[in-house]
């Protein structure tokens, strides 16, 4: 017997409770993407940490998040979406407490890795609550509200993060999650449980472990290269590549892979994720070093550095929806070409940001142009990756694309300081930071432009139907302003029902 197809309305008290729990829960993880970057210079100062520790502060989180996010939704389908969502909130909160209490850089890095595990449960879990709790005809509206209200949290992040870092201190960017989690857990008590009653088989835990180990080894090699020597770094990187090969072999042979490799037979899906690696690699690199340049190079306090990039978030909030609608009318090729090229111009303008420069003369034009470019390509990128596979695979298509964006940033944060010659304690010197940041602006602009050129060569002019005439899937997240990753999209929801009634056979 299948689960009933009733559900909540977005206007009902129960529906509002589900929305509030999902938005606040995912908002905790979204805030992390904006607040921690701003706090990095103060973390380094407070812990006396070298640049490598700051790199790992970001990458430990992204490593576990990217490696496990594809499993998060599957756990919810099997064990209950509300239950796994609550697990994610609790795990994320305990790890946040450990981050806030970390006595040294090593403890902070370990805690951040644990926090990423919580994020991998929490992020897809919040969307799963939306998809499973509302009536079929109201799901798209609920997902739209979830993505739009989540944008408010992202926009609020620079204000909150800067104020916390300059006021009570950088540890409070993690400790602030504790009262937020209490509110989320209270709201979640009234959320109905749901699961996929047809889910069966084992989870691909080995595949997730191999993926994380491979990425971790390559990341370690890039970060440790300046201090460990080329021989050691090369050996570790080679080991990471071999583990990556073992991951591919595992995914090809297992009956229920975490990453079904057959989806890459779609040339459009493969091309879109390749473009994603270029675009989000550039974004990850610049958002790692820009707060360091603004604070250590130009003397900004954390609040000023946080709100300096606010125009990007505001532009994406206002323009991402219209840009997505435009791409559906004219096709993805033009937005995915023009958007990255415009954003690349904004990154080149960041080359003018230097000690003694002014915000309105140097910083604002750069982030304005970058924000315009990102607003043009984020929504079309999501639409294209969803349209590249069958509707029933919308969830896995979005999950892989989201993971690809985080992997791109993981590698950019690891490799960029090595490429620009910034290492050890040089990030504290205004002169050294300014020289290195100028090189980084050129490299990130080049990577962004490469994504634009690849889009022109590889993207279709229109998105009408899949081979065989099957209709393409359309995004439900119409507004998106997170600068660190493309939005997660739900699956088709055909098997996502409410809790099975007692006594059902």
TrEMBL record:
Give the GO biological process terms: response to antibiotic
Location of the Major facilitator superfamily (MFS) profile domain: 18-463
Keyword Transport in the entry? The reply is yes
Region described as Disordered: 484-505
Keywords associated with the record? Antibiotic resistance, Cell membrane, Membrane, Transmembrane, Transmembrane helix, Transport
Question: Which CDD domains does the entry mention?
Answer: MFS_MMR_MDR_like
What InterPro entries does the record point to? Answer: EmrB-like, MFS, MFS_dom, MFS_trans_sf
| A single cellular component GO annotation | plasma membrane
Q: Name one Pfam family in it.
A: MFS_1
Q: Which domain of life is it from?
A: Bacteria
Q: Where in the cell is it found?
A: Cell membrane
The transmembrane segments are 18-40, 52-72, 84-103, 109-130, 142-164, 170-191, 203-223, 229-249, 270-290, 302-327, 334-351, 363-391, 403-420, 440-459
Which Gene Ontology MF annotations are present? Answer: transmembrane transporter activity
Q: How does it sit in the membrane?
A: Multi-pass membrane protein
On whether Protein biosynthesis is a keyword of this UniProt record, the answer is: no
This protein's name: Drug resistance transporter, EmrB/QacA subfamily
Origin organism lineage:
Bacteria, Bacillati, Actinomycetota, Actinomycetes, Kitasatosporales
């Amino acid at each position: 017997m299948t689960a009933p197809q009733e559900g909540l309305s977005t206007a009902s008290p129960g529906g509002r409770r589900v929305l509030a729990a999902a938005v606040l829960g995912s908002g905790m993880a979204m805030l992390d993407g904006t607040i921690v970057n701003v706090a990095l210079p103060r973390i380094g100062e407070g812990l006396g940490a070298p640049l490598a520790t700051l790199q790992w502060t970001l990458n430990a989180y992204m490593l576990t998040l990217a490696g496990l996010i594809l499993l998060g939704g599957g756990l919810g389908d099997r064990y209950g979406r509300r239950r796994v969502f609550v697990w994610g909130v609790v795990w994320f909160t305990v790890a946040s407490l450990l981050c806030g209490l970390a006595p040294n850089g090593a403890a902070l890095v370990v805690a951040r890795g644990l926090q990423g595990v919580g994020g991998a449960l929490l992020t897809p879990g919040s969307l799963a609550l939306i998809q499973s709790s509302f009536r079929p005809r109201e799901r798209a509206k609920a997902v739209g509200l979830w993505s739009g209200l989540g944008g408010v949290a992202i926009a609020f992040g620079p204000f909150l993060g800067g104020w916390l870092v300059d006021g009570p201190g950088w540890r409070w960017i993690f400790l602030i999650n504790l009262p937020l989690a209490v509110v989320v857990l209270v709201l979640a008590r009234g959320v109905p449980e749901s699961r996929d009653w047809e889910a069966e088989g084992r989870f691909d835990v080995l595949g997730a472990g191999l993926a994380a180990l491979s990425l971790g080894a390559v990341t370690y090699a890039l970060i440790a290269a300046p201090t460990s020597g080329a021989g050691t770094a090369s050996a570790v990187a080679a080991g990471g590549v071999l583990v990556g090969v073992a991951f591919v072999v595992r995914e090809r042979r297992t009956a229920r892979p975490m990453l079904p490799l057959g989806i890459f037979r779609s040339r459009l899906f493969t091309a879109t994720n390749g473009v994603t690696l270029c675009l989000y690699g550039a974004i990850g690199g610049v958002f790692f070093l820009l707060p360091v340049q603004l604070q250590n190079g130009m003397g900004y306090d954390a609040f000023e550095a946080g709100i300096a990039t606010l125009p990007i978030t505001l532009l994406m909030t206002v323009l991402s929806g219209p840009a997505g609608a435009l791409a559906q009318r004219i096709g993805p090729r033009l937005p995915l070409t023009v958007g990255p090229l415009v954003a690349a111009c904004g990154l080149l303008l960041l080359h003018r940001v230097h000690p003694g420069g002014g915000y309105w003369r140097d910083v604002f034009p750069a982030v304005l142009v970058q924000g315009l470019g990102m607003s043009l390509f984020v929504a079309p990128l999501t639409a294209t990756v969803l349209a590249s596979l069958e509707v029933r695979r919308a969830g896995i298509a979005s999950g892989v694309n989201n993971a690809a964006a985080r992997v791109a940033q993981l590698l950019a944060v690891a490799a960029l300081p090595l490429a620009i010659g910034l290492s050890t304690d040089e990030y504290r010197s205004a002169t050294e930071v300014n020289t290195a940041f100028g090189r980084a602006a050129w490299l990130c602009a080049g990577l962004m432009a490469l994504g634009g050129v690849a889009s022109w060569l590889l993207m279709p002019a229109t998105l009408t139907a899949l081979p065989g005439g099957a209709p393409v899937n359309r995004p439900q997240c119409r507004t998106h302003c997170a600068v660190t990753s493309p939005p997660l999209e739900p699956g088709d929801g055909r098997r996502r029902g409410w809790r099975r009634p007692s006594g059902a056979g």
